[in-house]
Amino acid sequence: MLKLILRRLLLEALPTLLVLVTVTFFLIRLAPGGPFSSEANMPPEVMAAIAAKYRLNQPAWQQYLGYLADLARGDFGPSFKYKDFTVNDLVWAAVPVSFRLGLMAFVVAVVVGIAAGVTAALRQNSWVDYSVMGIAMIGVVLPNFVLAPVLALVFAIGLKWLPAGGWEGGKLIYVVLPVAVLCQHYISVIARITRGSMIEVLGSPFIRTARAKGLPAGYILRRHALRPALLPVISYLGPAFVGIITGSVVVETFFGIPGIGQLFVNGALNRDYPMVLGLTILIGALTIFFNAVVHILYGFIDPRIRIH
Amino acid sequence: MHMPQRLACLSSAAAALAGAIGAFAAEVPPGTKLHPVQEIVRGNGTEPATLDPNKSEGRPESNMAVELFEGLVTLNPDGKVIPGVAEKWESREDGRVWLFTLRRTAKWSDGSPVTAHDFEYSFKRMVDPKTASQYAWYLGKACNVKNGRAIVAGKVPPSELGVKALGDHTLQITLEKPVSYLIATLSHGSLMPVPRKAIEKYGDKWTEPGNMISNGAYKLAERVVNERIVMVRNPHYWNNAKTVIDKVTFLPIVNQSAEYQRYRANGIDMTADGGVPPEQLKQIRREIPNELVTWPQLGTYCYVFNFRKKPFDDVRVRKALSLALQREVIAQKLVGTGETPAYSFTPETAEGYSPIEHDWQRWTQAKREDEARRLLAAAGYSKARPLRFELLYNTNEQHKKIALAAAWMWRRIGPVEVVLVNQEWKTFLDSRNRGDFEVSRYAWIADYNEPSTMLDLFHSQHGNNDGKYNNPQYDAIMDRAKSTLDAGERTRLYQDAERILARDFPTVNVYHYSNRHLIKPWVKGYGHNPEGRILTRDLYIVAH
Question: What ipTM was estimated for this complex?
Fold first, then answer.
């Protein structure tokens, strides 16, 4: 097991990350306009002083090697835009926020999504099935940027039950609307995957055998059907988890939540090279990590693919 | 002439203010019932790049700087320059040397006195190439402070800047050449004093809550990047007794619709500069018309011609396009939040400016279009050989709407085919700086309240002269105006400059911007500052 983890880390994770860093490093520098271009053009000598401060006057390969050296020490460098902070400061302040929001949305999405999917599968082609899947369909096609203002309009402006934005350290009333918006898409996808796979499993021979043996329906569902039916869901959850905790640009921007999503989009718009690089590395590392976790989880759920 | 020479207008203004100290601060009319909780939430448009005044980049940063700090001079609610930390000033040697007397009551938020040394330190720090301030050029170029340009160019050490503390309460500023509007330039957000001991102790971290010491009406209490900046009353501020609001929270909300929703849900009392989403304008006019507050701004929206590209070196083409544009329609119907149609580049509200009238300004639209047609034909354009060009703008719904309207208006005069090209902001800036455009959207907001901040853009040496307009006669007038101390003479020079622009048409002026906010009816105390600055120290909240 340890050998396997080490092999994955050294031969797969690190080279993947290095490629990611290299490609991102040079790609973002190809984007037109620089971090310090602004509507009011600076005189060339002012620009030169700024370039010197941020090492932008060095040749690209030298900047690249310098960056790798800093990175090896865990230093993502200074933010080119937010002069009072380093990228480390900003990222580590934003990670807990996105993580908290994402985790809540994720739990809600998994619980509600699986429950809805199973319910629909058990009553396949009934009105229950149609209505659950109908709602899920709306969830898949309804974009965040439509749902967010609609919910804010109803619950914040109309009913005045909840605030229309802000985070306040993650107080419950500030979290409700963002979580609702963030999880709706995932609920729909999870419900659809669960339903499809559950119907397939319920029609398979081993379930028929269990029924023939006279086992109670609830027992069959829990003991025999649920686990295999969840396999496709689990493989979806890995990347979904990374996606949901690394911040939703729309939800964070609309509700004014100080998470990673806002940093990422502003970083790209501002050409804040170290910020974009730092977040790309972080999200890349998380994706690799959770894919590995999913792989291990598979083994627990389906003994046939247990790792040897 | 070595006699001390006071500038009459300025010293009298200072004297008048010394007599009526209350002219700057929240002026609560007698009998007003104040709300028991004096706290306000304001939009700031975007997260400020820094809270370090010397490193200010634009409005989002200077909005913060002027709340937390106070410079030599400051602005009253209507934008007039009034004494700040300096209680009076005088010029000597024909305006080459200025002496500022600092008020002895001015204190930092830790209770220590604000001295002339703090200003000397701040100004030298700002021009120091090591600080890498984007406004490092300002003291040298806008204010003509001695050695400002040479220091920025790295030829002279920062210690040689023409700013010197003569004791704790007298600051001397030496200029290379007199600048008639020096005092107006000193209200700039980057020219605040900064606390040397905090900077030396904490380095770049001095702007964090707990580390920052400031000398303005407010001090920093909390900062969450991309969520909020909270400031509370600074009890050591010299005019603290006149401050009413105890706590101000700034929210950096970029998305105007999101800001609007929070405003409607009573989460915000005053939206950011320009915080009126065009998509919701109809609803605002219907449901909360009294909360939409607009007044003229020192800024202009226009299209700039690239003189390096044919046929825009031909004045007939430039004039035809300018005449054909129906600015009233765009300003009043299409945008419609207090903008005024622009015939000249300088807004009428600029201090010390008196607008000129263009001959075609009184013509009917039909006559303007006839003239435009004639000019285009004279320039050789016809159905067989139409005028084809690209109109570049940065990606934004409002700019698109205006560009579409402009293209339609130009097509009305005949053989004009406009291709609209939009680019993301930084890409757009890059194209414009490199001169990779034919006609481009261009906008300028004043750095200080004086016509030169607008008109200098057409100087052949100006870094933002993106169209590369070049007229030596124009350059000469602007150079002369800068050092002309007589206000009347200067106004005439600016008019001459505008007359040259009116002949050469380097831009199609579209409209002058407005300052526009949504403001809750319980917020009072703001004036109509053309520079748009609204200081929380002037505000108060009435009972509601």
Answer: 0.88
B21 has a chain A CB within 8 A of its CB = no
Task: State the DSSP string of chain A.
Answer: -HHHHHHIIIIIIHHHHHHHHHHHHHHHHHSSS-TT--SSPPPHHHHHHHHHHTTTTS-HHHHHHHHHHHHHTT---B-SS-TT-BHHHHHHHHHHHHHHHHHHHHHHHHHHHHHHHHHHHHTTTSHHHHHHHHHHHHHHHS-HHHHHHHHIIIIIIIS--S-SS--GGG-HHHHHHHHHHHHHHHHHHHHHHHHHHHHHHHTSHHHHHHHHTT--HHHHIIIIIHHHHHHHHHHHHHHHHHHHHT--HHHHHHHT--SHHHHHHHHHHHT-HHHHHHHHHHHHHHHHHHHHHHHHHHHHH-GGG---
Nearest CA in chain B to A253: B255
Q: How far apart are CA A283 and CA A285, in angstroms?
A: 5
Strands B97-102 and B81-83 turn out to be unpaired
Cβ–Cβ below 8 Å for B267 and A253: no
pLDDT digits (tens, 9 = 90+) for B59-103: 899 999 999 999 999 999 999 999 999 999 999 988 899 999 999
Which of B227, B436, B445 to probe by mutation at the A interface, max A CB count within 10 Å? B227
Using a CB–CB cutoff of 8 Å, tell me whether B253 touches chain A.
Answer: yes
Closest CB from B224, B257, B433 relative to A41: B433
- Phi, psi for residue A222 in degrees, rounded to 5: -70, -45
Contact A149 B267 (CB under 8 A): no
State which residue of chain A sits closest to B461, comparing Cα positions. A43
pTM of the entire predicted model: 0.90
Among chain B residues, CA nearest to A254: B258
Q: What is the pLDDT of residues B274-285, one digit of tens each?
A: 999 999 999 999
Do A157 and B129 count as a contact with CB atoms less than 8 A apart?
no
